[in-house]
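Regression test attached.
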Amino acid sequence: MEWIVALPLLILDDLGMRKLPLTAAEDLLEIVMRRYERASTIVTSNRPVEDWGKLLGDAAAVTAMLDRLLHHGHLLKCGPRSWRTKTELSAR
Amino acid sequence: MNLIELGHALRQLRLGGMAAVLEIRLQQAQAEAMTPIDLLSSLVSDELSRRGDRLLERRRKQAGFRDQHTMLDNFDFNFNKKMNRSLVFDLATANFISRREDAMFLGPPGTGKSRPRPSAKPSSNKATKCSTARRTRCWMNSPTPLSMAPAESSWSG
C-alpha cells in the first residue's frame, strides 16, 4: 500500500471494466484518502459515477471517495462517439 | 590530448553528449570567438539535453503507453465536439500533478479515456519526466489483491 500512496501520479484505468473483489471499495477509499491533497490520481471509467456505488458495493465509501477526488479534481467527459467507429469509417 | 583522444576520454567519463558534439562546438568556438566559459556552458548544456532526452525515452518505454505515436498535435477535436478542449490542453501540461490535484476521465467505451497522453510535445512531457511516474500502476483491473502486490511488479489492465 505504501508505494501506491507515495506515487506522484497514480492512474486507475478503466474502473469497472471487470468484476472487483469484495474489498475493492474499502481499498480504493483508503488509497484515495491517503493520496488526497498529497499526490495526483487519475481515474478513468466508462461507467457513470452514479453507478459506482452499485459497482463497488459500498455507496458510503464511494461517496467519500468521490468527494475527495472531485474536491480539487478535473472532470473530463469523453465522447460520446467512439474513435473505433471513426477508424472503421476511414478504412472503408 | 587530441580531438579523438578527448572524445574517447569523454565517453569513458560517460559524457557521450559532450563527445558527440565536441568537434562542432570547437569549430563554433573558433568561428564565433567564444569565451572558454561559453564553450564549456554549451558542452554541458548538450550533455544535459542528451541525458534528459534519454531519460524521457527510457521512461516512455517503461510506462508502456499504448499508441506511442498518438499526440495532441494530431488529435481530432472535431470528431467529439463536446469534449472540453481547454481542459484537455490544461491537463496535457501536467501542471495538475505538481498541484496534487486529481482527474477523472469518464465516457463510453472507445472514446479515448485511456489514450490521453501527458503532453503533446516530448520535450515538455512533465508526467513522464516525473521522478517516479515510471512506477505508475493500473491496479483496479488486476486480479491480484492489493496486499499481495510486489512493489516493482507491473500490472496492466
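Expected vs. actual: identical. Chain A has one domain: 2-91.
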